[in-house]
Write a structure and sequence with these properties.
It is a single chain. 61% of the residues lie in helices and 17% in strands. It is built from 11 helices and 11 strands. It has helices spanning 5-61, 67-86, 110-120, 156-206, 220-290, 295-327, 339-349, 351-356, 374-390, 437-442, 449-459, and strands at residues 89-94, 125-129, 132-141, 144-154, 334-338, 360-364, 369-373, 397-405, 408-415, 463-470, 473-481. A 5-stranded mixed sheet has the order 6-8-9-11-10, with helices on one face. Strands 1-4-3-2 form a 4-stranded antiparallel sheet, sandwiched between helices. A hairpin with a 2-residue loop joins strand 2 and strand 3. The longest helix has 71 residues, at 220-290. The protein is rod-shaped. It binds adenosine-5'-diphosphate (ADP). The site of adenosine-5'-diphosphate (ADP) has 23 residues, from helix 9 and helix 11.
């Protein structure tokens, strides 16, 4: 069973206070008793001395009498005179312990006889019975003991005073106990409350609530509370860091498995795309082996095998480009590139193809510069423009323009081609993705161009997007940060 700190404090306080009050009362009461004893012992010793002096004086006045005889014959009168002088009841004994006065002792106790024997041997002694004190002292003349004088002393006043003091102590003690208990209870209660609040805060932290409010106190408990607050912040930070790490790890793992998937798909696609031209070449070789003298077959085989080999060569080149861009941090040679001039150069290099399909080129070019790798820029522009030619209609149009916006050099290439279905717009940038396999094959494409373009654009700090596409054509937008001198 758990006992609350408040109850423990209260019990401890109560026991402590009771102990203090009892010990103090006992000490004082004992002191009073001792003082009373000293006082009446002194007083009675004085009375015994007076009795002795008076006895000697009386004997001297009765010159013819022996002290012993005087005591036997005049004991009654002498004791009465002593009573008058001392104000106490007096009993006189002779040397043999026989009473020679009129009064007999009240006490019937045997102890008094022992005390008497003691006194007969020349010693002073007394006996206390309830509130009565019997004081016995030797009666001497010179060195000789004549008898014993006994005083009766009432202790009732002493006892009354002692009992009164005892009662006073009980009342005052109880009062002091309650008052100090209440004061101390409230004082310690503030500590107990602070400790209980700390316990509640720790409990909340244990349950994961790290925002628990602390309290301020200018003592060690206040410092402890601040310490707990700091600790809880530290724990929260550590947990947040750990969660962040875990999130990053999960992301990395997901990315890794995604990459692995992409890589497998990439290899599958490469194998598949390479197989097609190779199968075609192998088929022609088989046919030529079967019909070595067929001139027509030889001619067709030559043309087709040349085309397929060229296609294979281009594909290998593009696959290599892509894997190099994927895997390595390419060393680009950055320089100031005149975009207007670059566009014109590319258009010029594609002039043969443009004329072949009867395509009309329109431009709206302005002077603009970017800081980029010239070869990368050429690859980007060639591929996008090549697509605009490849997927255009016969005698279609291509419109190329560039402009500056928000420190970006923007190049827009729009065509009047077949467009791209809305649902695959996102996929055209993936390697080996083609909307129409046959059309791509006819034009020598294998779905690698846009993937390569996107990589080049991104490594140059630019962006590439398909702005719009429909059955009337497509618009691609490329932008790069403008050159700053
Ligand atoms: P490819 O080498 O086959 O041209 P790309 O990666 O360059 O491959 O393009 C991916 C696919 O996107 C193409 O197969 C084609 O279907 C489509 N595409 C690209 N550009 C255009 C365009 N200007 N108009 C219509 N379709 C396009």
């Amino acid at each position: 069973m758990r006992i609350s700190i408040k109850i423990k404090f209260s019990i401890f306080l109560a026991v402590l206070l009771i102990l203090v009050v009892i010990i103090l009362s006992l000490l004082v009461l004992e002191g009073i008793k001792k003082d009373q004893r000293v006082q009446y012992e002194q007083y009675l010793a004085q009375q015994a001395q007076i009795a002795n002096l008076y006895f000697i004086q009386t004997i001297l006045s009765e010159s013819n009498k022996e002290p012993q005889d005087f005591l036997t014959s005049k004991g009654i009168e002498f004791s009465e005179q002593l009573e008058l002088i001392s104000g106490q009841l007096v009993v006189l004994y002779d040397r043999n312990g026989e009473i020679v006065s009129e009064k007999i002792p009240d006490s019937k106790s045997n102890d008094l006889k022992k005390v008497l024997e003691f006194a007969l041997n020349g010693k002073t002694a007394y006996q206390v019975e309830k509130d009565s004190l019997y004081y016995l002292a030797p009666l001497r003349v010179g060195r000789d003991q004549v008898g014993v004088v006994q005083f009766y002393y009432s202790l009732s006043k002493n006892l009354e005073f002692y009992n009164y003091m005892k009662l006073l102590f009980i009342y005052i003690g109880a009062g002091v106990f309650f008052l100090s208990f209440i004061l101390a209870y409230f004082y310690f209660n503030s500590f107990a409350n602070a400790i209980i609040r700390l316990e509640q805060i720790v409990d909340r932290i244990r349950k994961g609530d790290y925002e628990a409010k602390i309290f301020t106190r200018k003592d060690e408990i206040g410092k402890l509370s601040e310490g707990i607050h700091e600790m809880s912040h530290q724990i929260r930070k550590t947990i947040q860091d750990m969660e962040e790490e875990q999130r990053k790890l999960t992301l990395a793992v997901n990315k890794l498995s995604e990459l692995e998937k992409q890589q497998k798909q990439f290899i599958g696609n490469v194998t598949h795309e390479f197989k097609t031209p190779l199968t075609s070449i192998k088929a022609y070789i088989d046919l030529l082996e079967m019909y070595p003298d067929d001139q027509n077959l030889l001619e067709t085989a030559k043309v087709n095998m040349k085309n397929e080999t060229q296609r294979l060569y281009e594909m290998v080149d593009k696959v290599l480009q892509l894997s190099v861009l994927e895997k390595y941090d390419f060393e680009f040679h950055r320089e100031k590139v005149d975009i207007q001039q670059e566009i014109l150069l590319v258009l010029n290099s594609l002039k043969g193809k443009i004329d072949k399909f009867g395509i009309k080129i329109e431009t709206d070019l302005t002077e603009a510069y970017v800081e980029a790798d010239k070869d990368s820029m050429a690859i980007v522009l060639v591929n996008i423009m090549d697509n605009a030619i490849k997927y255009n209609r016969t005698k279609g149009n291509i419109f190329v323009k560039n402009y500056l916006k928000d420190n970006q050099v923007v190049i827009e290439i729009s065509d009047t081609g077949i467009g791209i279905p809305e649902e695959v717009v996102e996929k055209i940038f993936e390697p080996f993705y083609t909307v129409d396999k046959n059309r791509s094959r006819q034009s020598g494409g294998a779905g690698l161009g846009l993937a390569i373009v996107k990589k080049h654009v991104e490594t140059q700090g630019g962006s590439l997007s398909l702005v719009k596409t429909s059955l009337e054509g497509s618009l691609f937008r490329i932008s790069f940060p403008a050159y700053r001198s």
